[in-house]
Amino acid sequence: MRTSEAFRVAWEALRANKLRSGLTMLGVVIGVASVVLLVAIGSGARDEVTSGVESLGSNILFVAPGNFSFGSAPSVSRLGLEDVRRVGDAIGDPRRVAASVASGEIARVGSRRAAVNVNGTNETIPLVFDRTLSRGAFFSAADVETRRRVAVLGADPAETLFPDRDPIGKSITVGGVRFRVIGVMGRVGTAFGVARDAELFVPVTAAQRLFGVGRVDGIAVKAPSTEQIDEEQAIIREVVTRAHPEQEYQVLTQEDILGVVGRILGILTLVLASIAGISLVVGGVGVMNIMLVSVSERTREIGLRKAVGARTRDVLRQFLLEAVALTVSGGIVGILVGIGGALLVGQLSPIPAAITGWSVALAFGVSVAVGVFFGVWPARKAARMQPIMALRYE
Amino acid sequence: MVEAVQVSKVYRLDGVEVRALDGVDLVVERGDSMAIMGPSGSGKSTLLGLLGGLDRPTSGRLRFDGRDVTGLSEDELAAVRNRVVGFVFQNFQLLPRTSAVANVGLPLVYRGLGRSERRRLATEALESVGLGHRLQHRPSQLSGGEQQRVAIARALVTEPAMLLADEPTGNLDSRSGEEVLELLARLRDERGVAVVVVTHDPGVAARFRRRVTLRDGRLVPESEVAR
Question: Chain A partners of B107 at a C-beta cutoff of 8 Å?
C-alpha cells in the first residue's frame, strides 16, 4: 500500500466519526496548548529578569560586601573612596569605575515632593552604565572633588517636581540641604517592578556628608569587553581583599546575578511544562482508548482487508497513521491555541509571555510521539488479527 | 491447481478442542466448478478458508500450483490471496460509507496501484457484473443482489484463478440469488476461473459440475451421498 493512500484512509476514518475524533483530539489540544502556554509564561518571566539585569548596562562587575546567601547577616560596607581609587588604579582606567552610596529620600521643590533614590556617585556614571542625559550635563570630577551640591534628576522626579518649567539651574531640597539641578537623565523604564527613573544623582562626597557616613555601599566597574570580565573580576577581588582582609567581599558579574534567578525560573518553567505534560499523557490515553474501540469496531474491515491481500504492516500502518493523524491535528490546533493564549496573557496581565520555538517544536514532536506510543498497541492488535476470525466477528 | 492433502483443522474453543476438519483430500482444477455441501458445523467454511489461504491447516499440506504454502509467512500468504484467490462472502463484507468503485478497487490498493489505475480496473469489473451504472453508490444505497455483485466484482478485479464463495446466495431473495449463480456460471465459462461454492442448499449445489459433501469434518464418498 502506498503511503499517500494510507494517509487518505486514515483521514477518512477520522472524518467518518467527526464528533468522536474531535473529542479525542480535544484531549491532545488541551495538553499541547498548556505546554506551549505555560512554557511561554515561564520563558517570558525569565526574559523579563534577563532584560532587567542587562538594562543596567553591559559587562558590569559589582563589588559588594558579604556573601549572598540566605540567613547571612547583612553586612555594612567598609569600602571607602580610597577603594574606588585603588580599583581604578588596578584596572588602569578610573573612568570605568563608579562608586555608590545610596538612600531613599524625599526631594522637595516648594510644596512639591518626590520620593527619590539618592545615589551619591562620581562623574563616571554615564560611561559605566551607558546612560544619556535628556537635558543639561552630568557633574564633573571637580564637582566630586569639591563636594559641590549639584544634582542630576531622574526622569520621574524631574516631571513631578518641575511639571511646567525647565529644572536646569533650579534648586531642590533633600534632607534639608539645597542642591542645584544641572542635568536630567534620559528615561530607562522599569526593572523588576522598580521604577528606575525615580533617581537622583549627586556627587558621592556631597552624599556622604548628607547621610553622615564615610563609606561607599558598593563599586561598579565596567569591563572593556565580555572577554575581559573574568580577568578584571580577579584583579578587583585581589585589590579589595588585600585592602580589607577583615571583611568578605563579593565581586559579582551580571551573569552571577542572572545565574541564580535564571536557574530558579528555569526550574519553574520545567515544573510547569511537566504538569502540562501530564495532561498530554492523559490525552494520549484517550487516543489509545478510542483507537482500541475503532479497531474492535472495524474487526471485519480488517479481516476483509487481509483477505484481499493486506499485509501485517499495511494494517499496522493504517491504524498507526490514524492515531498519529489524531494527535498531530490535535497538536497543531493545540499549538495555535497555546500561542493565542500566550498572546492573550501578554496583553491582559502583567505576566509577559514569550513563545519559544523549542516549546512549539517540542509540543509538536511530543504529539507525534504520543500518537505513535499510544497508537502502536491498538494497531498491533489490529495487524495481528487472523483474517478468518476477524471476518466472522459479530 | 489447489491441492489439499490430508488437511485437518483443530480449534480450541474455551479450552475444548474442536476438530473442524479431519484428514480431507481435495483438488480444485483450473476452471473447476464445485459445490461443497454439508450440514452446518460440518467444516465446509473451514475448508473453503484453507483453500483460499485465509487459514492454515493444523496438519496436512496445501499446494498452490504444486507449491507448498503451508510454511509461508503471513505476508507471503497475503500476497497469494491477493494474486490467486477472490473471495465472496454470504454477508458481502463491503466497506460501509465507501463507493462501489472504491470497494471493488480495494484489493488493488495492496498491489500498490495508483488511484486512476484502480478506478479504471474497478469500473471494468463493475461493468462486467452489470453494475456500470452504480459506480458511486454506497452499499447502503444498493439492493442485496447488487451488493453481492459488487463483492463479486471485487473478487474478480485481481483476475484470480479461483473464486471462493461462502453461501453467496444465503442472504438474497431467490431472484437475486438466481442472478448471482448465473453470473458465477458465466464467469467460469467466459474467463475460465474456477468457482468453488459452499452451500447447504441442494438446489444451489445442483448448478455445479462437481459436488462434494462434508460431514463432521470428513469428506463423504460420492457413492454414499446418493443414499
Answer: 308-309
Which residue of A5, A11, A304 is the best one to mutate when testing the B interface, meaning the one whose CB has the most B CBs within 10 A?
A: A304
The sheet carrying B162-166 orders its strands as: B85-88, B162-166, B194-198, B33-37, B210-215, B218-220
Quick one: closest CA in B to A3, which residue? B112
Number of domains present in the structure of chain B: 1
Cα Rg of chain B, angstroms: 17
Domain annotation covers residue B180: yes
- A residues 10..69 contacting B (CB < 8 A): 16
Could you state, in order of their start, the residue ranges of all structural domains in chain A? Answer: 3-51+260-392, 76-247
Report the predicted TM-score, pTM, of the whole model to 2 decimal places: 0.72
Q: What residues make up the domain containing B191?
A: 30-48+73-226
Residue B16 falls inside a structural domain: no
Provide the CATH number for the domain around residue B149.
Answer: 3.40.50.300
Chunked into runs of 10 residues, chain A (394 residues) has average pLDDT values of 82 88 92 88 82 76 71 69 89 90 90 91 89 91 92 92 91 92 86 73 93 89 86 88 82 79 82 85 90 92 94 92 92 93 86 82 87 92 90 83
* Interface predicted TM-score (ipTM) of this complex, two decimals: 0.93
Beta-carbon pairs below 8 A across chains A and B: 62
Question: CB neighbours (10 Å) of residue A93?
Answer: 14
Residue B11 near residue B20 (C-beta atoms within 8 A)? yes
